[in-house]
Amino acid sequence: MLQAFARQRPEIKVKINISNPEAQQYYDFKETAQTIKNNNIKKLGLKEVKGNDFDIQVFIFTWNPDSIYDFGKEYSLEEILKQRQQQEKWDKPMIEQIKKLSVDQQKKTVIIDARLPNGAWDTLSIPPSDKFLAFGSWGTFGNSFGQTIAMAKLLHSANHQNKSAIQRQLLLEAITHDVFFTGYKEAQHPDSPLQKELKNQNLKYIRSDPYYDSPEETEKVFQVINKVINDRIKADGRQKQLELDNTQFVFVPQLWRTFESEVFIQDGVWSWTGIYRKNLKETAFNPTVAAKNVQKFTLSELIDEKF
Predict the structure, then answer these.
(1) How many CA atoms lie within 13 A of 29 on its CB side?
(2) Residue 129: which domain range?
(3) Is residue 292 in a domain?
(4) Could you report the per-residue pLDDT of 85-137, keeping only the tens digit for each?
């Protein structure tokens, strides 16, 4: 849907930097990042440029050329540690390049973490300030690339009195969800901060199937999620970098699992929700009650852009 909206906006110039253009994307039929990027450029109404005459620029983190990681295979701890060391060395030049951007450059910059589908590999790809245009690491690489750049294009062309606040909210919600809620190091890994705390309380991290057994269990899990992630995103200097002193995130279980649930900034300026169950405890399961300033929309309103 985002891509359809973005296509209606005027063409913009985009500069795209991919750490390893030949990195194969498992859930995109093992096509390379370069191929997927090329296939999406015209669909989004973009003109790719090589120099510095761009409207937005994109930094994409991918697997390094010597990566041993392949989905469906199990690796020893030694192999995993080797992978992490190789990847950190490969990512460092792009990370340093991003850190050197001025505030004006940050406002035109998008970061995509494509090292894993459905969640960021670690915290290193997090933008070093809340001024960046957009961030994404959700879905297949094709989905992540398409939806993140579509959102960036919409924000770039927007003429809204709260544009800066909306941009910041969408950026921070994406970081919180993609890195700390579904990311590999922060959530998916058995030794992640989130899973450790859940285990301490005799709870489990269910990413997709099977679902949690009851609404009571789901509510307890999400109470832990809300506490741990609000602490984690502010750790390691991020509270100052992202200006999070007065920012609180609220996670609401859209389904009885962590996969495909919702995150909102409390008192956000631009929050909507679609489908949710009305026969469960509202403070835990109803986004319009659990988080302030969350509005509902119908399918017809979405299609007509009347929200």
Answers:
(1) 2
(2) 2-175
(3) yes
(4) 889 999 999 999 999 999 999 999 999 999 988 999 999 999 999 999 999 99
